Here is the input.
Amino acid sequence: MNVAFVIYNNMTALDFIGAYDPVTRLKTMAFMPDLTWEICAISDSVSDSAGLKFTPTRVNEPLQGFDLVIVPGGVTALVYQLTQDPAFISWLQTARSCPLIASVCTGSLLLGAAGFLSNKKATTHPNAFKELAEFCSHVVDQRVVDEGNIITARGVTASIDLGLYLCERLAGHAVKEKIRRQMDYQTAP
Amino acid sequence: MNVAFVIYNNMTALDFIGAYDPVTRLKTMAFMPDLTWEICAISDSVSDSAGLKFTPTRVNEPLQGFDLVIVPGGVTALVYQLTQDPAFISWLQTARSCPLIASVCTGSLLLGAAGFLSNKKATTHPNAFKELAEFCSHVVDQRVVDEGNIITARGVTASIDLGLYLCERLAGHAVKEKIRRQMDYQTAP
Here is the structure.
């Protein structure tokens, strides 16, 4: 199981880290010892929208071959711009054959621009429901929306709910509950 | 208002980012336009316990002069080791005169080792209540414990509650609520 955490300039750091924490605990808490992951970007250096620097472990390499790809969101206007950036969207499309693709917050606009939400229900930050509508069949106001091979989550802190949901899908309810308690997270998705 | 986000090797990324998100929104959402912050470490490069790299903006400089210092936690055993690291604890003690110092999760063990919890109530991750007991007057099982100039929060995801609590202390309830809604966070502290 190899996971790609996608990062990009002007993303929201918590969208990324809120899912990264529970998913990487599958390995660090020894539930899935063979789990591996990469931090994937198209640029050498990435800063979130408040200037915090992140360092990718893979730069501008195709996403195909990953078992799970997770895409964070950012401020709606900036992410909407990115939906119109051919270089970024082409790169995201290299995840086309990946069996499971997930997004947090306005990350679903990016999945939509890549064509991954055709005929799918999806969610995003409530402030971006209108923008998402042009990219999917139906906008759903739910914390996590599972369409089989595509999972979308609502705003920013829904990253934690998405991460825990993925833990449950990958390793079962009991493991998810152990991770949730270790994260001292009091509301389950 | 200048905030120091302390980072160090083997910390838990979500302890840091869960507070960083709401606190930096005080500026990015224009409630406190003059808010500034630095990412402070004693080493050039910092990795969390799962290998994610962070880049400090200030390396091995004293923490005095900051208005607020926030210290994340990590895996109890590793943080407990750090409580016995004279170089790290001496550096943390340079925050002694800062008017407000906060911690997430086992970050309170570090505040304790620096002497900041003498005669104070404090909290930490439930798994580390025993370790915290030797550093403070009384361990309290609460999400956020406010002792005036020292605020401690429980485990990992309590970072978000701490961050929102700080938003309320710094900018009032209405601002905190706007930030909480923007974060799509459904349970208030």
Notes: The first helix of chain B runs from residue 13 to 28. Chain B touches chain A through 33 residues (CB under 8 Å). Chain B has a mean pLDDT of 97.
